[in-house]
Write a structure and sequence with these properties.
It contains seven helices and eleven strands. The chain is of the alpha/beta class and 227 residues long. The longest helix is centred in the last third of the chain and has 15 residues, at 212-226. It binds cytidine-5'-triphosphate and magnesium ion. Residues 11, 83 line the site of magnesium ion.
C-alpha cells in the first residue's frame, strides 16, 4: 500500500548546539534533512511528502530540494513552536484518506523493512509505531534513592515513523488541539481517542540526530551502509 509522509523539520536543534537548525548539518557532505528525504524519495510506495518548516528557513530548504533533486515534496507548511504543532500543520495540509507516516526529519537511518512493516500494520489495524526494546536496566529513583526496578521486558524506546490511517490521526490531532493536550509523540494523542496502537519492532540504528555524539554515530553508520 502507498502512503504519504509528514516530516516535522521546524525545530531549532538546541541540544545539538550548532547555533542553527541541526537538519542543515552535514553527514558525508550532505545535509541530514536530505539524507532523510532521500529515504522516501527512493521508496516507490511513498506518494508524497509534506514538510513543516520555519518560515525564515523556507528559501534555504526550497533551494536544497532543488539542488538534491527531491521531487516528492507536495507542500512546505509553516511549523509551530512545539513539534506537535508542526505535525498538526502537516495534518491540516494533507486532508486525504489513506496511510500517513509521521517521521522526524532528524532520523535519517530508518530502514525500508521497518517502513513496510509499519504501513502494513497501520493499514490492517489503523495505528502502528516503531520502537525497540529497552537494553538497559531501568529503575525508579526518588530523592536519589532507588525505589524500584522496572520489568524491562515490556518497555520500549519509541521512535518514528508512526503510521496511521489519516482519519484516525486527524481526529486525534483535532481533539488534542481543542483540549490543549500536548504529547511527546503522535501515539499519545491517538491513544487518547481509544484506538489501539500496535508496536512494530524497529532497529537500534534508527537514531535521532539530537546531540553531538549522534553525529559521530551517524558518520559510522553511513560508512558501514556504503560497504
Ligand atoms: N520539530 C518541529 N517543530 C518544532 C520542534 C521540532 O518540526 N517546534 C522537528 C525537528 O525539526 C525534528 C523533529 O521535530 O526533525 C524532532 O524534534 P527534535 O529532535 O527535538 O529536534 P529539535 O526540536 O530541533 O531539537 P531540540 O529539541 O534539541 O531543540
Ligand atoms: Mg525538540
Amino acid at each position: 500500500e502507498s502512503y504519504t509522509v509528514l516530516l516535522p523539520a521546524a525545530g531549532s536543534g538546541n541540544r545539538m548546539g550548532a547555533g542553527f537548525n541541526k537538519l542543515f548539518l552535514e553527514l558525508d557532505e550532505k545535509p541530514i534533512l536530505i539524507h532523510t528525504l532521500n529515504v522516501f524519495e527512493k521508496d516507490s510506495a511513498c506518494d508524497g511528502m509534506i514538510l513543516s518548516v520555519k518560515e525564515e528557513e523556507r528559501p534555504i530548504i526550497e533551494r536544497m530540494l532543488e539542488q538534491y533533486s527531491i521531487t516528492k515534496v507536495k507542500a512546505l507548511v509553516e511549523g509551530g513552536a512545539e513539534r506537535q504543532q508542526s505535525v498538526a500543520a502537516c495534518i491540516r495540509a494533507h486532508q486525504t484518506d489513506g496511510i500517513v507516516l509521521v517521521h522526524d526529519a532528524a532520523r535519517p537511518f530508518i530502514r525500508q523493512e521497518v517502513i513496510v512493516s509499519l504501513v502494513d500494520t497501520a493499514s490492517k489495524y489503523g495505528a502502528a509505531i516503531a520502537g525497540v526494546l529497552v537494553k538497559d536496566t531501568i529503575k525508579v529513583a526518588l530523592d536519589g534513592i532507588v525505589k524500584e526496578t522496572v520489568d524491562r521486558s515490556k518497555l520500549w524506546t519509541i521512535q518514528t515513523p508512526q503510521a496511521f490511517r489519516y482519519g484516525i490521526l486527524k481526529e486525534a490531532s483535532d481533539k488534542a488541539e481543542a483540549e490543549g493536550f500536548l504529547g511527546t509523540d503522535e501515539s499519545m494523542i491517538v491513544e487518547r481517542i481509544g484506538v489501539d496502537v500496535r508496536m512494530v519492532e524497529s532497529t537500534y540504528d534508527n537514531v535521532k540526530m539530537t546531540t553531538k555524539e549522534d553525529l559521530l554515530f551517524g558518520e559510522v553508520l553511513l560508512k558501514h551502509r556504503r560497504q
